[in-house]
Amino acid sequence: MKNYKTVKSFDDLIETEHGKLGTESRNQYEEKSQMFIISEMLKEARKNANLTQEQLADKTGTKKSYISKLENGKGNVQLSTLIRIFEIGLNRRVGFTFL
Q1: Domain range summary for the chain, segments of one domain joined by +
Q2: How far is CA 95 from CA 9, 60, 63, 82, 87, in A?
Q3: 0.90 exceeded by the pTM?
Q4: Nearest CA among 56, 88, 87 for reference residue 70
Q5: 45-85: per-residue pLDDT in tens?
Q6: Band of the pLDDT at 1, cuts 50, 70, 90?
Q7: CATH superfamily assigned to domain 10-89
Q8: Three-state DSSP class for 80?
Q9: DSSP of 23-68, one letter per residue?
Q10: What does the pLDDT look like over 10-39, one tens digit per residue?
């Protein structure tokens, strides 16, 4: 049973549920969280551009099934492909922040 009495912030909750940064459980959580964020950003940007998944795939040289997987957080994405989808397919700039 996990001890939630010491949880006072969201960061405390994540640490209680998934462990400290660098642990396998926490790394998996962080990776899935980032993929979820990317998938939601992609979905929103595509809809704002009034494109279907198929139209976006055609513009970027990918397949509709690949776009669908990304939007559902199921696929692995190469950085170069992600940049191409956002910059060429959706006319959006991509920036990165490393912490």
Answers
A1: 10-89
A2: 28, 19, 24, 11, 11
A3: no
A4: 56
A5: 999 999 999 999 999 999 999 999 999 998 788 899 999 99
A6: confident
A7: lambda repressor-like DNA-binding domains (1.10.260.40)
A8: helix
A9: SHHHHHHHHHHHHHHHHHHHHHHHHHTT--HHHHHHHHT--HHHHH
A10: 999 999 999 999 999 999 999 999 999 999
For 99, the token pair is: 């912490």
Token pair listed for 68 = 């669908």
In one-letter notation, the amino acid at residue 54 is: E
Give the amino acid at 78. Q
Token readout for 11 is 């960061």
Which residue type, as a one-letter code, is found at position 95?
G
Find where tokens 């992609």 sit.
Answer: 42
Structure tokens given for 73: 């957080």
What six digits make up the tokens of 95? 């920036």
